[in-house]
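User: Hi! I'm working on a homework problem where we have to compare a predicted structure to a textbook description. Could you give me the structure for the chain below?
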Amino acid sequence: MLNPIYLDYHSTTPVDRRLLDVIYDSMIDNFGNPSSIDHLWGDRTLNVIKKAKQQIADLINCQAQEIIFTSGATESINTVIQGLTPPHHFIISPLEHKAVIDTCQAMVKRGLGKITWLKVDKKGRIDLEYLEKICTQGASLLCVMAANNEIGNIYPIQEIGKIAQTYHIPFLCDGSQAVGKIPLNFQDWGITFLTISGHKLYAPKGIGALIVKQGYHLQPLIYGGGHQNGLRSGTLNVSGIVALGEACYLRQLEMVEDERAIALKRNHLQSILQSQIPSLIINGDIHNRLAGNLHISIPHVPNSAMIARIRDKIAISTGSACTTQTLAPSHVLRAINLEDELIESALRIGIGKFTTHEEIEKSATILIDAVNQILSLFAI
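Assistant: Happy to help. Predicted structure tokens:
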């Protein structure tokens, strides 16, 4: 196919073309350094940074001064976990992004703390009673993502935040997959630290934000100049920041309608696949998942064989884009005790704002044909 279909929106999203004007302006016209306080170029750029902060704040209900710009969620997560004063006791969901798990484990290896793992069921749902029981013992940080990047589960962040507040435990919520797709309320939900990644909500790659509740202090990872309240030094990525702000503004306007339409497309694709592939299994919590997420396993159909047949026609994945360079099975699917055969046949489909109905229909045909080809080889 000359124009392969893109269904990997959990990995990254295309940039919304409506952002190009603000990106262009920040590069060509208002290109000043916002830290240059001695002339109008700096003033103008500082004003567009302030506007972007307010656009982000309006989407997630935080204070503009609580926003720190980073390169993305991975840096934001590292800033929190490495910026806390040791010793550490981390309470972590085993379904967290590798940026959370690997960073916490690195701190433990340095002798700076320990990890307590939360319990999850086969649908990837968190045992909230166990979470509260563990929190009664105290901890330095609770880490639970708002939505999972593989199986798409949406977690009860408001309830989890209330538990964290009750036991005075700082709460790090990875909002990478959730911000701009589902409502999040930083101010009222007991969240202490929230991460945002621009390229998950139709902004460019390389820009993100960390929201730090007022009154909390972190040691910086990057020194030099004392920018952003001393937490993250370095000249600001102005074009990325204004694009992130504009993307958040557009998500606030269009999120509800867009996600409703995306869910209809996902459900249509799911229905077609189920009707033609009776053995198909849907992984995760189908009652609480992202609108664009369809995570499936097809017994007797290895995902490697599927990808080999469709990779030039449809972009889907066998796991997280952040760990696809490794051959190890998904830690998420391992944590929910998915059988080995189902892990080896797992496929993640991500549908987004720009996915068309025609692409859904074509994708269904391509996927079904590939499954039938593979099953015929094994005479199943």
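For your comparison, note the following. The first strand starts at residue 5 and ends at 6. The longest helix spans residues 238-276. Good luck with the assignment!
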